[in-house]
Amino acid sequence: TKIASGLTTDAAGQVKVAELKPGDYYFKETSAPAGYELNDAKLNFTVELQTTVKVATVSATNAEKTGSVVLTKTDSDTGKTLSGAVFDLYKKDGTKIASGLTTDAAGQVKVAELKPGDYYFKETSAPAGYELNDAKLNFTVELQTTVKVATVSATNAEKTGSVVLTKTDSDTGKTLSGAVFDLYKKDGTKVASGLTTDAAGQIKVAELKPGQYYFVETSAPTGYSFDIKKQYSFTIVLNQQHAVTVKATNTEKTGSVVLTKTDGDTGKALSGAVFDLYKKDGTKVASGLTTDVKGQVKYNNLKLGKYYFVEVKAPKGYDLNKDKQTFRITLRMTEKSIPANVQVTDKKTPVQPEKPENPTQSSSSKPRTGTSGSTINKQTGSSDKRTSKGNLPQTGEQYSGYLTVIGIVIILAVLGIILYRRRLNHKNSK
To answer: What is the mean pLDDT of residues 315-341?
Structure first.
């Protein structure tokens, strides 16, 4: 039998009811305090016969409503949700409540039935390829006067990788120090600038997050050329175990040489001279280089160092110059540097005409030498031709008329001498 309804606990948590006749009674809770679970148990008590004043007492309890929490795990840079992160859950005082809580495909951990209070998560294992976040992830479950879900945000940074760039000479493979690079992400964001190769020809960059990158050379080592538009690309992968390697090469700057061939007496340019070109160590660089109508041989793309020309064929009518014509290709500070110059001269080959045989004999037995340079044997009347040492020059059609005139003059001179001597001998015999 309901005796009263709507009895509400006051500020002291009490309900007081008087004028109850002796007997057995019970309270029934119809509404719990905000944030508490309803206690639907019968709260029995007895009012005794009042031979003395007695007040019956009833104790009633309520449990606080429990709350829940949702932890969401994301990538610290991209915001992408991360599954596979593992957590333990603790009360603020360090009491462990749960362990092995793992983020699902949505990157979440959900825990219910938590009484109001302060808590924290502790990450025990990060997703593959990510750094462990060992911070305490604090949260509070509030008194559930209305339904409230606590939320926790947790992030992980991807594990970083590294790269090693090595700079070498494109021909020799020698490592090159002093090359300067800038480093960019694939989207063109500059990551670092002024990175310079060390004594081992290397640049090392660490703490690079997974992604695509590229180097751009901004300055080459002294004496080398480079392409400022070339990109040296590489990729840092998730959970990288070893440094990525990048190979970059430089080509030595080259120079040029101009050899000019002239007549040693007149300075006239001589075409048709043929040369071979050698390095200082004797390695042949080129052969069959022939002077043009200006008397020149031009040769480009010579690397720094010492070289020499050797003449292998002289122009017609000239002696071969067998001397090594040395020169040096030096560092070009600008693209318009003056080429090395080599001056070579040749001397004309002296003309040595052949002497004709004497047509008559001299009556004297003693050989005599005529003015022409031939030895005349008086007994035989013949002359022995004498020539200077060395080979006769190569002559062309331009000398044929000249030689004919000289030959006629020599023959007439010899005949005159012979006739004069015969007359002289004839007078002496009388």
So the answer is: 82
